[in-house]
Amino acid sequence: MNLRLEFKIAWRYLGAQRRSLFVSLISLFSMAGVCIGTFALIVALSAVNGFEAEVTTQMIGKDAHFEIVDYRGDQILEPDSLAKLLMEVDEDITAYSPFIIYKVGVSSKKVNDGVVVYGIDSKSAKDVIDLPSKIKFGVFSLDSLVDSNGVLRPSIMVGSILAQRLRVKVGDRLVLQTFQGPDDMIGGGPKMMQFLISGIFETGMYEYDGNLLYVAIPELQKLIGMQGVTGIQFKIKDPWKSEIHAEMASRFLGHPYHANDWKMKNLTLLKWMNYEKFIVAAIVCLIVLIAAFNIISSLIMVVVDKTKEIGILRAMGLSESAIMRVFVGMGSFIGLFGSLLGGVAGLTLCIIQERTHFIELPADVYMMPFFPVQVQALDVVVIFIIGNALCIFATILPAWKASIMKPVKAIRHE
C-alpha cells in the first residue's frame, strides 16, 4: 500500500499544477529527450544492422565462399582434378566452379568503356554464386544466340547499371576487346569478339552492377588466348566459417596455390561495419545522456518547489526511503514513457521502411538503392534497459537531497 501511495505522489508531482507548471514543462522536455534518444538509437542501430546484412548478403551472393588461385598469378590447367581432390578432404564443400577474371574494353553502338569480365561455366556456377536469382531482364544463360543477320554469336550477361551506361538491352550486340600492350602492337593489335546480351542482372550493389560482365569460359579463353582458368570457386555449408575452409585448402594444396575467402576479400568493409555499430550507438547514446541530465535538473527544481510538501509528508510519517522512492518513481515515469513512445515510433518507421523502401539512397554512393533497416530484438531490449537505467540513475542525487530534509525546516521553507 505504501509503495502505491509513493508512486501516486510521484505521478501527481509530474502533473501540471498552478505553481509548478514550469517544472512540469521541464519534465515533459526531459521525457521528449528520452523519446528522441530512444527513437534515434533504434533507427540508427537498425540502419547499421540493415546495411551490414544487405552488404553481407550481396557479397556472399556475388562471390563464392572461398576460391583457389595460383599465388604467382599463373593459370590453372586442370581445375576439375584439383577441385575434386580438395572435396575429398573437405566434406563441407558442396559445389565448385572454375572461373576466369580479366579486364577488357567493351563497346556498344554508342558507348565505349573498360570493365571486368568473368568467364564462368553457367552449369556449375549457378550452384556456387547466386547470379541466376539476380537476373532482371532476359535469362541466365551463356548459350550461343542468333543475331538479326542469322549469325550464331556467343552470349553475355551484363550488370543493370552498366547496361544503362552502354545504352543496351537484351538482344543487343556488345564487342569485347583486349587492351593493347607492347606485344599487341608488334603482333597486330588487340583481339576483338562480338557477343549478344542474353540477360541483365541486378545485385543491388553499384560496384557489381556497374562494372561486371559474365561470358562462357571457352569464349573468354579464345579472346585472351588462355588455355586454363584463373581459379576455382567453392561453396560450403556454412559461409561464416569460410576462413577455416580457406586455410585448410591452402595448407592441403600447398605452394603455389592460395585460398581467399569472401571475408578476406572484403576485410576492410567488414571491419568498418563492426566498428560502425559501436560508434553509432555510443554517439546516439549521448542524446539519452543529455536527457538524463535534464531529468536531474527538473527533479532538483521539483525538490525546491515542493520543499514544504516534502516536509509535510515527512511529518505525516513518510520515511526517508519513501521520499527517495517518490522521486525515483518520477524519474522512472519519465524514462518509461519516453522510451516507450520513442521505441514505438522508431519501430514503426523501421517496419514501414523495411516493407516499402520509401527512403531511397544514391546507389553510386551507398552501393544500394534504398535505406536498409533490420530490427533486432536484442538491440531493442538493450536500448530500453540502458535508457531507463540512465533515467533512474539520474534521480539518485535529487531523491537523496529530498530525503534528507528535516520536516520542521522544510515546512517553514518559503
Folded structure, characterized:
The chain has 414 residues and is α+β, with helices and mostly antiparallel strands. The protein folds into 2 domains: 2-59 and 269-411, no CATH class; 65-264, no CATH class. It is built from 17 helices and 12 strands. A 6-stranded mixed barrel has the order 2-3-10-7-9-8. Helix 2 (21-62) crosses helix 13 (320-356).
Listing every helix as H and every strand as E from the N terminus to the C terminus, the arrangement reads HHEHEEHEEEEHEHEHEHEHEHHHHHHHH
**What is the molecular shape?**
elongated
Amount of beta strand: 15-25%
The N- to C-terminal Cα distance equals 31 Å
**Biggest beta sheet summary:** 6 strands, mixed, barrel
Mean pLDDT: 82
Query: What is the SS-derived class?
Result: alpha+beta
User: How many independent structural domains?
Assistant: 2
Count of DSSP strands: 12
Spans of at least 5 consecutive residues with low confidence: none
List keywords for this structure.
alpha+beta, single chain, 17 helices, 414 residues, 6-stranded mixed barrel
Layout: helices, strands, pairs:
Blueprint: H1 2-14, H2 21-62, E1 66-70, H3 79-89, E2 93-107, E3 112-120, H4 122-125, E4 135-138, E5 145-146, E6 152-153, E7 155-159, H5 160-166, E8 173-177, H6 182-187, E9 192-201, H7 206-209, E10 212-216, H8 217-224, E11 231-236, H9 242-253, E12 257-261, H10 262-265, H11 267-305, H12 307-315, H13 320-356, H14 363-366, H15 377-394, H16 396-403, H17 407-411
Parallel strand pairs: 3-10, 7-9
Antiparallel strand pairs: 1-11, 1-12, 2-3, 2-8, 2-11, 4-9, 5-6, 7-10, 8-9
